[in-house]
Amino acid sequence: MVLQLVRWLIMRLVALFYPHIEVRGREQLPTAQPALFVANHPNGLLDPLVMMLGLHRSIAFLAKSTFFANPIGRGLMAAFGALPVYRQRDEGLEGGAHGDRAKRNEATFARCRALLQQHHALALFPEGTTHSKTLMLPLHSGAARIALSAEAETNWAIDFLIVPTGLWYQNKAQFRSSALVVVGQPFAIDDLAPLYATDPETAVDELTARIDTALDAVVLQAEHAELLRGLPLVAAWTAPQELQSLEEQHARTAQLLAAYQRLRTTDPARLAAVEQQARRYARVLHTLGITDPWELELSAARRGRLLWLALLLVIGFIPAIAGFVLSYGPYRLAAPLTPVLLGDYEETTSTGKLIIGTVMVALGWVLAAVICGWLFGLGWGIGLLVCAPLLGYSALRWGELWSEFREAVAYTWLTIRHGTLVRELVARRQALAKQVLEAVQLANG
After folding, report:
1. Per-residue pLDDT tens digits for 269-316
2. CA distance 210 to 195
3. Lowest-confidence range among 87-96, 170-179, 186-195, 247-256?
4. What pLDDT, on the 0 to 100 scale, is given for residue 341?
5. Which among 314, 311, 282, 305 has a CA at the least distance from the CA of 408?
6. Which of 172, 6, 130, 120 is nearest to 73 (CA)?
7. Paired residues of 124 in beta bridges
8. What local confidence, expressed as pLDDT, does residue 68 receive?
9. N-terminal to C-terminal alpha carbon distance within the chain
């Protein structure tokens, strides 16, 4: 019961951190067969939790053994059915293998095989570690070994499907941002049975290569960070119509990335010209403080929301102020504490904000309730503690509404006050969109 409560609470917190988790390719999810998900690993422990929320199913997964080093960590891992994997780099650390790594990993792999044989869903991250690189790391063979050995133990009777899965975050370290789960084409491995019976290592290599190819189809990758950051923006700016969802943005970005890679070989001059125009346009938008040029063309439709937003901001102001006072200071402590407690890595930032921030906010609420109870009586203290979560959420929503209101006012003012400039920016966006469309058509032959 306690573990179920912990699991429910953490999943609600993840949903609060990433309120919009979209799924592309949901129709490809296996319904009648067990699933072994293989995925990229950009965001630490949050990756499997985001998958569970997006796909609406319970999925067991592997986590590095150091997460199991203390009772709290073991309890949290148990709440999600996580299994420890012992890495060579962790030997000597608390929770590491301490010399019997192979034996302990084999015990974990045996549990993975048992889960698959019992038709439980399992997620593996064959890169072996979480990272923020723009290209996937070379895959380890563990996922292929688990898959093949699980089928071989049952004389290939499980008949599970391997489901390549891509995880893409709008901004993985930003509170209240979006995430996308991309489900690729599932595939079976029964055709490898004869090869595995005679040459297991070659079969493992073959399956690892298949997984690598399948992940390439669902994970956006680029040679450098600037390209991977810039292409989604260009995709959003130059689409035939405004992209409303992360799924649409991912699909458009994948299309532009494929065209970019082809044009780099077939027509580098045209590619350089498009890149130059996109950079110039981005600099102009940055100088003017414009994050979404589509707002300049759709501002008339946005103005109708201004009055409604203003009314909500007035009504919610007092509760929001109370929630801000109670929650903001403790939550801000998560930023300096995360690198101290979890290490100064981008991959742990969102996990730190989620876990450490939640703990600090809860402690802040308790402290405020104690002070309130001491000053005004026990009933007031209990009342404040009960109301604190609602007040904190009110502050959160008020802040989001205020950001939307401020942007709507800014775009409306720009449209009214500087109409000529707005028309020029609209024309430049449309010209860039035309250039990109022609480049894509050329790349597609």
Report:
1. 999 999 999 999 999 999 988 998 998 887 655 666 788 899 999 999
2. 15
3. 87-96
4. 63
5. 305
6. 6
7. 38
8. 86
9. 59
Half-sphere exposure of 347 (CA within 13 A, CB side): 12
- Cα–Cα distances (Å) from 405 to 99, 196, 401, in that order, read 59, 61, 6
351/386: higher pLDDT? 386
Q: How many CB atoms lie within 10 A of CB 350?
A: 28
The answer to whether residue 119 scores a pLDDT higher than 80 is: yes
Ramachandran region, residue 99 (left: φ > 0; alpha: ψ -120 to 50; beta: rest): left
Could you tell me the domains of the chain? 2-216 (3.40.1130.10), 299-423 (no CATH)
Give the pLDDT score at 344.
Answer: 61
* HSE toward the beta carbon, residue 258, CA cutoff 13 A: 16
The model's pLDDT over 153-178, given as tens digits with 9 standing for 90+, comes to 999 999 999 999 999 999 888 888 99
Residue 146 has pLDDT above 70, yes or no: yes
Strand partners, 162: 36, 187
Order of strands across the sheet that contains 178-183: 20-24, 178-183, 161-169, 35-39, 122-124, 60-64, 83-85
220-242 burial, b at 16+ Cβ within 10 Å, e below that, comes to: bebeeeeebebbbbbbbbbbeee
| Residue of 110, 119, 104, 123 whose CA lies nearest to 62 | 123
Mean pLDDT of 330-353: 72
Tokens linked to 131: 């990272």
